[in-house]
Amino acid sequence: MAILLSTAYQFFILRICFEVFNTDGINNVNKKLRKLQSDQLDCKYDELTEYFIRCVRHHEMLLRFTKSFNDVINPMEVSQLIMSVASICLGILRLSKMASLLPDAIFQCKWINLESKQLQLKKDIAFVIQHAHRIPQFNAYNLYDMNMTSFVKVLKLAFSVYTVLSSLEKKE
Question: In 21-147, which residue ranges form alpha helices assigned H by DSSP?
């Protein structure tokens, strides 16, 4: 996160540098940049061109850095996504399994052996057994159910997309 914020701040600084371009403040900024960089641009170009080249070089460096950073972080992002989706789906699977066992547990609680004067309680237990057969369903924005079948479909789609993108990258 700190690397991303630092890079974002570098883009902010670069934006400010371009805003200073062709103003009175360019001389002060260029003097500071000459102290930081010993690239001898001041000997080759006039003040505006030198400043512009420094800004463009900095922009190119930021683009190279973000590409390199993206290459490094891509596997981590994909693994994080897969782990998050897998943990949610496995949690939902576990919840569904436990919820599906509840009606049997209620039925086996010896409620049939209740005395005849507790008829209302027997009816209530029968109602709860019937109600317990409703297994909680999770969905994503009411678009699709989140269950093991959906998880497998998402994995298949993700692998297909990955395969297509990998083949396109190799062709380039």
Answer: 26-36, 41-44, 47-107, 119-132
Please, are residues 47 and 27 in contact by the beta-carbon 8 Å criterion? yes
Assign 25 to helix, strand or coil: coil
Q: How far apart are CA 86 and CA 35, in angstroms?
A: 52
Looking up tokens 């998402």 gives 154
Please name every residue paired with 140 in a beta bridge, in sequence order, or none if there are none. 144
Residues 140-166 as b or e (16 or more Cβ within 10 Å = b): eeeeeebbeebbeeeeeeeeeeeeeee
Tens-digit pLDDT string for the chain (172 aa) = 788 889 898 898 888 888 888 888 777 777 777 777 666 666 677 778 878 888 888 899 999 999 998 888 888 887 887 788 778 878 888 888 888 888 888 888 887 788 877 888 888 888 888 988 887 777 778 777 777 777 788 788 888 888 888 888 777 6
Helix (H) or strand (E) holding 171: helix 148-171
State both tokens at 68.
């390199």
